[in-house]
Amino acid sequence: MRTTTLLLAAALTALLTPGIAHAAPCSGYVGLTFDDGPSNAHTPAILNALRQNGLRATMFNEGQYAAAYPAQVRAEAAAGMWIGNHSYTHPHLTQESQAQMDSELSRTQQAIAAAGGGTPSLFRPPYGETNSTLRAVEASHGLTQIIWDVDSQDWNGASVDAIVQANARLTNGQIILMHEWPANTLAAIPRIAQGLTSRGLCAGRISPQTGRAVAP
Ligand SMILES: [Zn+2]
After folding, report:
1. Which of these, 103, 116, 143, 160, is most buried using a 10 Å CB contact count?
2. What DSSP element (H or E) covers 145?
3. What Cα–Cα distance (Å) separates residue 67 from each residue in 43, 109, 117, 177, 216?
4. Of these residues, 141, 149, 151, 179, which one is catalytic?
5. Residue 23 has what pLDDT?
């Protein structure tokens, strides 16, 4: 009885004390993804916005930029983001030979790892374009292909409202396509966070086993 009373008192104190963070319960997880980085121009602002709003995301990096801006790869990892492979030069891979596909994927794996971002287990094909040859090359590098359930259209000039509304369509386990470079995407991040919280959803990692968003 005494233990129960003490536990209740502790719980009440925690609930009533300002300054103690109470994480909202997560009834589900969604996968936020940001493609085409890293860069000195956009990555720091995106990471700050995500961090300030308590969001974690998967950053699908191009190998050429991971090689050019390794400090930004490390910053992504330090900010708690997950780093995926988005090819080396962002070509239309389905128009390339198997050897070219292999080069695009393997050089990116090496560039991200060399920068300190770990060895990716997720791959997003540029433009979402894929075929059986590409899937075999992905598999040979231990990469799980991740497309998306919702396209925010941020790459196509979507407004802040439209980007927020696209995120509002996400259900448990789903993944949304966004990019690190559109100003409207950066501006939408606080409202994306508020919308998820109001629906009891949290930003999760993408499982390489299932390709779905799950608890971090
Ligand atoms: Zn892309």
Report:
1. 143
2. strand 144-145
3. 14, 11, 11, 23, 27
4. 179
5. 61
